[in-house]
């Protein structure tokens, strides 16, 4: 049982060697930006550009532009031959700016930048001009105009290159400790995974016990083992782990800082604890929706929620004969439009348990759709049908009706296909409700400066490609805090989030983006517009000698440029895209 | 009674029905009977059975031709024809015979009344003597062997006339 919790990554922790990045970052000292000597390399890209644009003419034109010391054309600039030609020219002609006019920076910019670096030039003195996607491909039937456009694009590139400045990349160190917020199955798994890899973990749980929602569950799907059977060893491992500090009945008071150095304050009402961590994992989970006002809940004692049913099944008393479950209570409606994802599975599981306990029991599941996806759940859907669980589809236009004064006696439901109202005897009515976000998730989202979706669940950086991290570096997400997740999903997300969090901590540093925004103190009025638009929470207002001024944390800045566009005073500038650089391009365009 | 129906339903895998309606689309009865509806279709009958309606007295079970196309097409594996046949047997045992047609000679069930009505409609007047249809096919052979031979050419003509019209 214990072995099962040790993942492969944890086993590797002991003998894993960290190879620090030793490759150079060019020689920033060689800034040589006094007198620009620009080299222009125009690429034929085989027939892609050369077949439309008259490349030699463009090269000839480039030579006439101010500060251009050298220009040539290559068949393929990205080839070994083309790259070595660029490197040689940098040395031979003492070039201190390089322009390649070819394809898209998406694919080849890193390649050319590396070539510059290898020739001893700071890679930020390289400028890319796109004359393939932006020119030859889209104007393939107009070679004359395309050639003119290519010239204009090169002219703009040259104009910008004259004002290019060398930039420096630097590293920021990461403190090898993590904060895990939430002690449910996701939080515990993440904490354990990190701790087994050798990191110090601070696990904060609001309740008096670890375990989260799973503590209230009877048996788990699809193995039908007791939830406690695998929860207990997990809790034990977490509690006994030398590197995990557990804070029970505690809440996170404040989190300040950025990746590598978060200052955390945790309080349990009486005492406070303060510590530093490098990364944060949000595993706050969710809560069961209590359907007050739906179908006589909570006035009728035999109308219950799934967790209450789990509790009844756990106790195992004489179980009622006729059970009616109403699915999608409070879910997939205008107010709460999402699907609870695993409530159908839980209903199927409990229906099977009831039928297995007493085959004469009648179990009806009133559904709007049965979300029995995947191999296991479909099989259980079939099993439930085999055992005689009956499924009736209802519509929101004519929802079921629970009849009874002191107790629910029967449920009336309109059968859409038969076109009749059926009356089902009911000793117990289960309102199958979805999970809803924690009521204080807003507080946490403000504290960590991470976003929430319209339903109140936390929002990841990218729905498909970055599902377990926030846009803000160093803060990760797993379990039902993102959306209602079953145990399998919670555990795998926890492994993913802890692996993600381990990466910078194991490396010991993070590479900081060089193309960042910076604020001109003399122009900044401290209005705070930049703070509001920054999606990475990288800007703050600092009060100094000259009053309130904005300050960009270069470690957190991703160089998106939102603040630069938003600044009403032009105080915000972006390295590599300064006003002077961009406006000189515009001037070059309009003055032919 | 309901328990027995439930047992039959369970043995014929009615609970596997996913209400896709392919059986209804495939059922030849949809074209033949004007009063065919969801109520008497395989899907409707399955749903009513699962919801504990009294299908024994339901006319729906007498609509089926037992051609088995629904079983063939069912993606979930419901055996509707087997179910219908066994429920009919049960209904006859219980004396619920108003929708069935029983042989005048041997007393055995041989056709639902609905089907007979359809056959009589299709046959032109006098193509087959009316009394033939009151006997089951086997008894017809015994009692009307000779007459049948005479009647058959006429029937063939009638069929050819119909084919020409189409």
Describe this structure in words.
- The complex is a heterodimer of chains A (592) and B (166).
- In chain A, 30% of the residues lie in helices and 23% in strands.
- With 592 residues, chain A is of the alpha/beta class.
- In chain A, the strands form ten sheets. In chain A, strands 10-7-6-14-25 form a five-stranded parallel beta sheet. A five-stranded parallel beta sheet of chain A has the order 16-23-17-18-19.
- In chain A, α3 crosses α4, α6 packs antiparallel against α16 and α10 runs parallel beside α11.
- The relative contact order of chain A is 0.11.
- Chain B has two domains: 92 residues, Alpha-helical ferredoxin (Fumarate Reductase Iron-sulfur Protein, Chain B, domain 2), CATH 1.10.1060.10; 66 residues, no CATH class.
- The longest helix of chain B is centred in the C-terminal third of the chain and has 29 residues.
- The N and C termini of chain B lie far apart (47 Å).
- Chains A and B meet through α11 and β19 of A and α4 of B.
Put the structure in a nutshell.
By secondary structure, chain A is an alpha/beta fold. Chain A is built from 16 helices and 30 strands.
Describe the protein's topology.
The complex is a heterodimer of chains A (592) and B (166).
Chain A: H1 8-12, E1 38-43, H2 55-63, E2 68-74, H3 80-92, E3 97-102, H4 105-118, E4 126-130, H5 132-136, H6 143-161, E5 170-173, E6 177-181, H7 185-196, E7 200-204, E8 219-220, E9 225-226, H8 227-240, E10 244-247, E11 251-258, E12 261-267, E13 272-277, E14 279-282, E15 286-288, E16 303-304, H9 306-315, E17 322-326, H10 343-357, E18 362-367, H11 374-386, E19 390-393, E20 401-403, E21 410-415, E22 420-425, E23 428-431, E24 435-437, H12 441-448, E25 475-477, H13 487-507, E26 509-512, E27 517-519, H14 529-533, E28 539-544, E29 547-552, H15 562-566, E30 572-574, H16 579-590
Parallel strand pairs in A: 1-2, 1-3, 3-4, 6-7, 6-14, 7-10, 14-25, 16-23, 17-18, 17-23, 18-19
Antiparallel strand pairs in A: 5-26, 8-9, 11-12, 12-13, 15-24, 20-21, 21-22, 27-30, 28-29
Helix pairs in contact in A: 2-6, 3-4, 6-16, 7-8, 7-13, 9-10, 10-11
Chain B: H1 2-11, H2 22-26, H3 29-32, H4 42-50, H5 69-73, H6 80-93, E1 100-102, E2 109-112, H7 113-122, H8 137-165
Antiparallel strand pairs in B: 1-2
